[in-house]
From TrEMBL:
Organism: Bacteroides stercoris
Gene3D superfamilies referenced in this protein's UniProt entry, alphabetically: Carboxypeptidase-like, regulatory domain, TonB-dependent receptor, beta-barrel domain, TonB-dependent receptor, plug domain
Keywords assigned by UniProt, alphabetized: Cell outer membrane, Membrane, Receptor
Pfam families hit by this protein: CarbopepD_reg_2, OMP_b-brl_3, Plug
Lineage: Bacteria, Pseudomonadati, Bacteroidota, Bacteroidia, Bacteroidales
GO CC entries: cell outer membrane
Name this polypeptide is given: TonB-dependent receptor
Length: 902
């Protein structure tokens, strides 16, 4: 009995104490933490009870919740780059205590003159707020999201945007529209491209370590030059400095099919930091003098010999520095970043073949390739605040990407020659960009805003010393030199330099808080200089016994050249050079106004005066003797509407007219070949501008915790679009360009982001598109009507991220990223052969990062987990079959690294 009583007392006592403790623990302090000026949530801000280790961290919406016992507390609220807040005598009881805090930037009180803080647009939540409030329909990705998802450069970043894919040679495809239909800017100013065949600069030139965010607009705004219908991609470099910092990071890794394996490299003079060259005197002298000069000494700094090496790991690193300096009542901000990296890529047992109309194979080659890449980038920024809203800034950006690829190929050509080729290609892209810009507010309540900017960019594309030696298999099985037309053993040097000046000036007047009128002017001047030189080796006088194709010094040497056994022919034809330019004067007027509180109307018109020219030589003509001009003056109207249903839901509509101008090489009728073995191109002097009529309708819904969904439908009518055509000339395919009658692109895009549970987020987007173009008469192509080249009817991205925090400083980031790229036309079919199509491609990447504390973090990344082959197939209409014509596999790669930030 007593035992039961004792147990009952104990149970009662435990229940009483539990209820007492629950009563004591019933208090909750909660609320939100936001930027005092911008009202944006400060994700990651901390609330801590002074004198204890107990605290809470603000979530994606800036909300925090702190469970406490009944009592009186002192709270400390902190966020990097903001002034701390200390709140005394916070009483906690049974009822929840709601406290909302607005933090003020450290840069806002620097004396008698206050400085307005600039938004830090690197985080996903801050960029989503920008997207939500933007006048235009935009999509964006910031450096923090890129870091979590293991995205190393801008090209990889834009592939995650709805409706965008990357084709061969880095060509951007947006909504099925090729490179010519989009535009790229750096900090809002146009930037030149070093690629002669592409309008856009290669986006992999920009490492993520130098980028603040990428903003993509697929609708037109009158502030921008009107030469886009696909997308306007603006790359914003880092400039905001919330606090002084110094950072260093280092990564290493490699591809599983490459690391530690043998690789082959043709002789090179030094590393990829240096550009191979040729004796300048040998280029400048008359041809009659060259024939004797080349015998007197080696004019090249490389040979054709190939060496075997073991592949080292990939390495890359970054140094960053930022500091704010107070000068009287103003702030001078300095930021610098330098990154460097190298990598290796082996591809074994790849192949390609060409067909004839019956489906029989003409050329059939297998190949192994060995590539090395060097990437350098440097960013510098200096900003100075003048008054409360005024600032000026200077940005410098430099990058150099160099790739050296050796390829051994074996197979049979169309004439049944059994051949072995030893080829080396080096390609070097460089960019140097200077920007100066300013912003000034004046008038009562800062109703007037003046913005100005200017930039100078210099880009270069060099192909120094492309080399090739061809061998033929003799009847007895031995190898000999292939000498069919004395052009099989050769060197090629090509260079393209482009310079571009840009200027803009805009004045905005606000007649109330939300409505304004804006007047602006833009100027662009772009010039290009291209030249190429070939050197052919006549080997008819030598017949060496070839036992090793990698050892060429025994017969391709200066001694044989001096003795006349090997003749080097220099080919510098006027048609291998051209000069070109484009000058645009433009002005625009636009307004943002609300006829009713829920409807925003953006109405604008732009007028452009464009003068485009090319100086060139016809076949057999003199240097730069001919000129083609294309001068046009055009109006470009635009309308953007945003109807806000409520705080979460909105509908957007856009309509505009834009232009597509021909590239320089397309508008002049000279025969152009960028490099030996590439397609021959002849421009068209009757080519005119194409015009595009664009319509977009989008629904957006933004929820809590960064959740969102958008649904977009679009239609584009292409009037006289510029299309590449194929014609037959002397049995070979010649590429040219014509204005087609018309074309169209239409599609649907869906995007969503959802927090599944705390710290676990899902993001996905899907694009379905239909494209069609009616080709002009006169081409040798098989299909007179087809989808746009490079357009995949379906594109999809999905990512799953898990980012839990462990205290204030430790955080884990895990990300799994999936990409689907549907089948698309790789090359247009000619001569009764169907189109060559790249088959559907699936990729899966994994990224993991862990912040050990506020200084150290670790990283692991694995790309292309599925390790799929890239496959191309061609239709053969005469047999109703589809033949695989090319296959290669890049392989899975991994990377591990660490970073330190002070």
């Amino acid at each position: 009995m007593s035992t039961k009583l004792d147990l009952g007392k104990i149970f009662f006592l435990i229940l009483f104490l539990t209820l007492s403790v629950m009563t004591v623990m019933a208090g909750t302090i909660k609320g939100s933490i936001t930027d005092k000026q911008t009202r944006e949530p400060l994700t990651g801000a901390t609330v801590q009870i002074v004198g204890t280790t107990q605290g809470a961290i603000a979530d994606m919406d800036g909300n925090y919740s702190l469970n406490v016992t009944n009592g009186i507390y002192t709270l400390s609220i902190k966020y990097i780059g903001y002034k701390d807040i200390v709140v005394n005598n916070v009483k906690s009881g049974k009822a929840d205590v709601v406290l909302n805090f607005e933090l003020e930037s450290d840069a806002q009180a620097l004396g008698e003159v206050s400085v307005v803080a600039r938004k830090n647009l690197e985080g996903e939540r801050a960029l989503q707020m920008e997207r939500r409030k933007a006048t235009l329909a935009i999509e964006n990705i910031g450096s923090k999201e890129m870091s979590i998802k293991g995205i190393s450069n801008v090209e990889e970043g834009v592939k995650k945007i709805t409706g965008i894919s990357i084709a061969d040679a880095g060509q951007l495809i947006v909504r099925g529209l090729g490179d010519r239909y989009s535009t790229t800017t750096l900090n809002g100013l146009p930037i030149a491209s070093p690629n002669p065949d592409n309008k856009l600069i290669p986006l992999d030139l920009f490492p993520s370590s130098t980028i603040q965010n990428i903003t993509v607009s697929k609708v037109y705004n009158a502030e921008a030059f009107a030469d886009y219908s696909g997308a306007h991609i603006d790359i914003s470099t880092k400039e905001n400095i919330a606090e002084d910092f110094f950072s260093i990071s280092f990564n290493t890794g490699g591809k599983f099919n490459t690391l530690g394996k043998d690789r082959y490299q043709m002789n090179r003079n030094g590393s990829l930091f240096k550009t191979s060259g040729v004796d300048q005197a040998a280029l400048d002298m008359p041809l009659s003098d060259f024939d004797n000069y080349v015998k007197t000494g080696n004019i090249f700094d490389t040979s054709f010999a190939v060496k075997k090496k073991s592949t080292l790991p990939d390495f890359n690193g970054n140094l960053g520095f930022g500091k704010n300096i107070s000068i009287d009542s103003q702030t001078l901000s300095i930021l610098a970043s330098v990154s460097a990296g190298n990598g290796y890529q082996n591809m074994d047992n790849a192949f390609y073949k060409t067909l004839e109309a019956t489906g029989n194979v003409q050329d059939n080659f297998s190949y192994d390739s060995y590539a090395q890449e060097l990437k350098l980038a440097a960013l510098g920024y200096i900003g100075y605040t003048l008054h409360r809203h005024d600032r000026i800034g200077y940005t410098f950006f430099y990058t150099r990407n160099a790739t050296d690829t050796y390829q051994r190929r074996e197979g049979t050509d169309a004439e049944d020659h059994e051949l072995t080729g030893s080829n080396n290609i080096t390609h070097i892209y460089t960019l140097q960009n200077h920007q100066l810009n300013g912003l000034h507010n004046f008038g009562e309540q800062d109703r007037w805003e003046l913005t100005w900017g200017g930039s100078y960019s210099k880009t270069g594309s060099e192909e120094p010393d492309r080399r090739q030696v061809m061998y033929i298999k003799n009847n007895d099985g031995t190898l000999g030199l292939f000498k069919l037309n004395r052009q099989e053993t050769m060197r090629y040097f090509g260079s393209l330099d482009e310079k571009e000046w840009n200027g803009n000036l805009a004045l905005r007047w606000k007649w109330n808080e939300n409505n304004f009128l804006k007047l602006g002017f833009n100027y662009k001047n772009k010039s290009r200089d291209y030249k190429a030189t070939r050197f052919y080796y006549n080997l008819n006088k030598i017949n060496p016994t070839v036992t090793d194709i990698y050892d060429t010094d025994g017969f391709l040497n200066q001694e044989n050249i001096a003795d006349g056994n090997v003749t080097v022919q220099r080919v510098m034809q006027p048609k291998d050079s051209y000069r070109a330019g484009n000058e645009i004067y433009s002005g625009y007027l636009l307004t943002d106004f609300y006829p009713v509180p829920s409807l925003l109307v953006n109405l604008g018109v732009r007028y452009e005066i464009s003068k485009q020219w090319v100086d060139y030589a016809t076949d057999g003509g003199d240097w730069y003797a001919e000129r083609r001009n294309l001068d046009k003056n055009d109006f470009f109207p635009t309308l953007n509407l945003k109807y806000t249903i409520n705080d979460a839901n909105s509908i957007r509509f856009s309509a505009s007219r834009t232009v597509t101008r021909p590239s320089f090489i397309e508008m002049a009728p000279f025969l152009y070949q960028e490099s030996y073995g590439s397609a021959q191109i002849r421009g068209n002097d009757e080519l005119q501008n194409g015009y595009n009529y664009n319509f977009d309708l989008r629904y957006e819904r933004f929820g809590k915790n960064g959740d969102m969904i958008s649904l977009t439908g679009y239609f584009k009518y292409l009037d006289s679009p510029i299309e590449r055509i194929q014609a037959l000339q002397g049995g070979a395919t010649l590429h040219s360009f014509r204005n087609a009658d018309n074309g169209m692109a239409a599609g649907v895009e869906v995007e969503c982001r959802k927090q599944l549970i705390k710290d676990l987020r899902l993001g996905a987007n899907l694009s379905y598109m239909y494209t069609n173009v009616k080709l002009p008469e006169g081409g040798a192509y098989t299909n007179k009507e087809r989808p746009l080249q490079g357009a995949s009817p379906i594109l999809a991205n999905a990512d799953l991220t898990y980012s839990p925090r462990f205290g204030e400083e430790r955080q884990l980031n895990l990300a799994l990223l999936y990409n689907l790229q549907g089948s698309r036309i790789h090359a247009v079919g000619v001569s009764n052969l169907g189109d060559i199509k790249q088959q559907t491609l699936h990729t899966l990447n994994f990224s993991a990062g862990y912040d050990l504390n506020k200084h150290f973090s670790l990283k692991l990344q694995v790309n292309d987990l599925l390790n799929r082959n890239v496959i191309f197939k061609q239709e053969v209409p005469s047999t109703g079959t589809e033949v695989e014509v090319e296959r290669y596999k890049k392989g899975t790669d991994f990377e591990i690294g660490f970073s330190y930030k002070l």
